[in-house]
Description:
Blueprint: H1 3-18, H2 25-40, H3 59-69, E1 75-79, E2 90-94, H4 95-115, H5 118-149
Antiparallel strand pairs: 1-2
Amino acid sequence: MQPAEVRDLLKQFVGYVTKPGEKSDEHMLELCDRLVFAYRNTSYTFDNRDFPDAPRTDYGEQRAKISALFPNYGPYCLPTTMNAECSTDQMIGDAIDDLSDISRDFEEVLWRFEHTSVDDALWDFHEGYWRHWGRHMREFQFYLFHKISS
């Protein structure tokens, strides 16, 4: 994917989860799938210049905004481990937390597109996948898949 396509997709996702409008689980899952595809199909050259940190949206404000827009999203169960040995241990995931964290991470990437460099933005997008948003995304995708298919 071209950097502009990634930027536009990030804008689309952030707008979808933070602005009023018609919402559907199917469209949300499609956006999530496209974002993982974008991660897998973009590359960058590391830009080692020293850039300022992106401003961070307040978590509480983001969560309140998203919670109001997605009243049917909530907690879900996750296994505590993913390995060959099964157990009954579970932990709780939170769809609103997932969307809040993912959208905040993507807002930082978008800020980098506008204020640092394309390669810096793509680096943050890629590093963030393994550092933070990727796990939220994968767990949220599974939550949505189950919600749609049940």
